[in-house]
Amino acid sequence: MDTQITAFILDVFGNDPPPEIPGNLESVYRGLGRPVDVQRVDGPPGEDLLTRLHRQSEGSEWVLIGHGDSAFYSLHECRRLVEAVLKYDNDWGFAENHPPGIVFDMIRRSALPVMENLRAKGKLPYTRPFLGEILLQDVNLFDLENLYSDVNLRTLRLSFFPDSPQDRETLRAIAGLLDGKAWNVDLDWNALAARILAHRHLLRVHPKYWEIETSTRCLQRCAMCPKTTLGDAAPPAFMDPATFDALVGRICQFSPKPVLALTGLGDAASHPNFLGILAAALAHPVAEVLVETSGADFDLSLADQIMALPGGERLSLIFSLDAVDPKLHAELRPGERPLSAFLETVEYLLLRRPANTWVQAVKMNENFEHLVAFHKHFQRLTPNIIIQKYNPWRGLLPERRLHPAVPFDRIDCWHLKRDLVIRVDGTVPVCKQDLRNEHRLGNAIHEDLETIWARGQAHFEKHLAGWEFCRGCDEHYTYNY
Ligand code: SF4
């Protein structure tokens, strides 16, 4: 007698695939060559999705769970998974290093209540990767089958679900590589993966992360900051709030739901109208606003005013402290205020907006021994502790790491692929590492953003071919969004 399998197509996470590349999961289920009861589950997921799947699969020994909005499920790879799970009689089979949207999950039906129990205990919401998150709660509860891909695309961070504008454009670019052939009939995954690797220049689709320099003033003179090293003697400059407001409006039109990082060679909090800048940013449909600050301009009154800003839940404040020892802090971040003044504001904010307040230390020789004490100090107050990689800015600053850890193989630069940097006067350099604006893409205040972004493509292609400019840079693998 054939094994009973219920195959679910989840349409619960609310994304429509691009119309020209509709989901193919049903045809993959039908192509498995086994009797499967295919059921479509519409959204929203609610709080009882797994319970529903359990109820709807009564009489089956196995369930297959995939999503209706990927056009790229691979019949060949999915069949491999099903055969392996049945052969070894596992509880749960999943793809280990295929990008999401290529292989469904295969789960023993009797494991579904166990999974729901883990999810409820861990208070996990139903989001796209809910299966993987449940598994991480306790991998030892299940007998697992991992399916490995021969071609590893992990560093490309691909997703075959249309979850963001960038993902949708990437899917269109990849669909273009198929030459109109039906995906699950004529091509196998390894062939497509190899083609993607040969066409990596197509994966620079749309910016997501916008670094905007609104202020070039900073009250500290830190040795690990290029501003100090460059001996910047120019008077401080500030972006006019109205100019900033108009710029952010244009960014949101070009790049829906952008992430704005108010950063650059200055401290955004040193802007004379910092609150006006924040209010303007949050008034637009941006996904998130990040401010990385020394904290030197903060006091409790400013903290209160920030907390009163509408949309403040989209604002993350990152305090770069580097040390909680007063002497070391003063050495690393010379300025006028004592450490106690910084800690007062940071701890005030950590108590009142714990989800959106972060503390940060750059890991370098000067504070390496101290980082445990730094972590212990803040661990009592928050899990939001960032230990940041030191950036020698393409060799402009001295090396401050005993053992710089970088990938053996260079990774296609995420900053070229997803970021756009805008200096205080609107100048757009090729990337954040181009401190002297040697490779200008244009001016974001005066020129069309799409045109500026398009100019970066030639630099990305040079980068893929081993561009000299990138040789001394080890920021390529640092990933923002
Ligand atoms: S590798 Fe470094 S220098 Fe080259 S584009 Fe990326 S961030 Fe810029």
Please outline the helices and strands.
Blueprint: E1 5-11, H1 25-30, E2 36-42, H2 49-56, E3 62-67, H3 75-88, E4 92-95, E5 105-108, H4 112-121, H5 130-137, E6 144-147, H6 165-175, H7 183-186, H8 189-198, E7 209-212, H9 226-229, H10 241-254, E8 259-262, H11 274-282, E9 288-293, H12 300-307, E10 315-320, H13 326-332, H14 339-352, E11 357-362, H15 371-379, E12 385-388, H16 414-418, E13 419-422, E14 427-429, E15 440-443, H17 449-464
Helix pairs in contact: 2-4, 4-5, 10-11
The structure holds iron/sulfur cluster.
The site of iron/sulfur cluster has 12 residues, from helix 16.
Tally of separate helices: 17
**Backbone structural class:** alpha/beta
Shape: globular
Number of strands: 15
DSSP helix fraction: 25-40%
**Largest sheet descriptor:** 7 strands, parallel
Strand order of the largest sheet: 12-11-10-9-8-7-13
Bound ligands, each once: iron/sulfur cluster
Distance between the termini: 49 Å
Please mark out the parts with pLDDT under 50 across 5 or more consecutive residues, or reply none: none
